[in-house]
Automatic annotation (TrEMBL):
Identification of the protein by name: Cell division protein FtsQ
Tree of life domain: Bacteria
Keywords: Cell cycle, Cell division, Cell membrane, Membrane, Transmembrane, Transmembrane helix
Organism, as annotated: Sellimonas caecigallum
TM segment ranges: 23-44
């Protein structure tokens, strides 16, 4: 009888010892996990964000955008969200790439949308894309962008679409600018008057009117050199549609 009691007590002691050991292991694991999380939070705490490629978006706007999307405090969380989660791109950008320079430094490369033109207003330049959305309102003039006149930009704001009667005008402008680039022609400015388009090359005004501009612009590489040094208006608004006649009205 006493042997059974002793055996039972021994079994209880072994069970208690095993449970205590398991508890200590679990407690140690939990402490280790917490310590690891704290270490990761401290080591991968974002202290510096380097931003490149932005001209329309300011550094402050990009930082606010990152903070709004979450993960701005921890580089691991930020990179995980950008690679595997949902991280929408701002309206004025094509893409944003994030890389880790070191655990506490993030490199942000911004690829912004390309403006098709700008409108000058109150000493500032309103740049817009091929769909008419405002990419930025800057005080600096970018020489590689075409000047557009005739569009209302009084209520223009970044990320919003310019107010026009017909959105097709933006597609028409894109077509005209693309055709000019193909012909290696540089227009000083483009006047957009409703459906009608007018090009300016120095003292020469070229009336394209409306409709398909391809045939009309195709005539310019031949005609413009012949008009060098003169002033006036080249009428192409009806060329190709109702007539093959091109007239030049001297100023």
């Amino acid at each position: 009888m006493s042997d059974r009691i002793a055996q039972r007590d021994g079994t209880r002691k072994r069970l208690k010892k095993a449970r205590r050991k398991q508890l200590l292991i679990r407690l140690g694991t939990a402490v280790g996990v917490v310590a690891l999380l704290i270490a990761l939070a401290l080591i991968f705490q974002v202290r510096t964000i380097h931003i490149t490629g932005n001209s329309f978006l300011t550094k402050e706007e990009i930082l606010q955008y990152i903070e709004k999307q979450g993960g701005a405090d921890n580089s691991l969380i930020l990179l995980a969200r950008t690679k595997f989660g949902s991280f929408p791109v701002p309206d004025t950008a094509e893409s944003i790439q994030f890389t880790m320079k070191n655990p506490w430094t993030i490199q942000v490369k911004v690829t912004e949308k390309t403006p098709i033109g700008y409108v000058e207003s109150d000493g500032k330049y309103v740049y817009f894309d091929e769909e008419g959305y405002v990419l930025g309102i800057l005080e600096e003039l970018r020489e590689d962008v075409t000047k557009i006149e005739g569009l209302d930009v009084k209520k223009a704001s970044k990320g919003k679409k310019l107010s026009v009667k017909d959105d097709a005008v933006f597609g028409y402008l894109v077509q005209v600018i693309d055709l000019l680039e193909r012909k290696e022609l540089a227009s000083d400015r483009i006047l957009c008057d409703g459906e009608n388009i007018t090009l300016y090359f120095g003292e020469i005004c070229v009336e394209l009117g409306s409709g398909n501009p391809e045939e009309k612009i195709a005539q310019l590489p031949t005609i413009l050199p012949m008009l060098e040094g003169q002033k006036g208006t080249l009428h192409l608004e009806h060329f190709g549609d109702s007539t093959d006649t091109i007239s030049f009205e001297k100023k």
